[in-house]
Amino acid sequence: xxxxxxxxxxxxxxxxxxxxxxxxxxxxxxxxxxADGRIHNLRTAMTVDQDFLDAAGTNGPVEAxxxxxxxxxxSGCSQWTGTRCGVIDxxxxxxxxxxxSPVAADLPPCVIRGDCRWFAQAGPAACGTCSLIVTDxxxxxxxx
Length: 144
Hints:
alpha+beta; four-stranded antiparallel β-sheet; 4 helices; 22% helix; 18% strand
């Protein structure tokens, strides 16, 4: 399902945001991992700088505790299938196989929904799934 607007058969050529981008200076902090294991989105956009990332990194990998948004790299990303982002498709298929419905009555707050790659592909179902995706699931160890 393409929510990009216009002809649904036409390719979506609009510049999109990746809601699971690597943490880098200039990225938007999208949300923070809560004790419930879900990402809780910020209500206001916050662009991060290297000082923020350095400070946040003292407690382990930042992508294991926070989600960042950046420009969708399409073919420059290993998750790109050639026509769409594979991350949200795989996550939604996994939930469907487990017979879990991620769609909530109200969409969670999101600072990038208007240009989000996942929302453009899958609509509101992507928003329910989004909160379950943690970019970096490496084990946090004392060595990191």
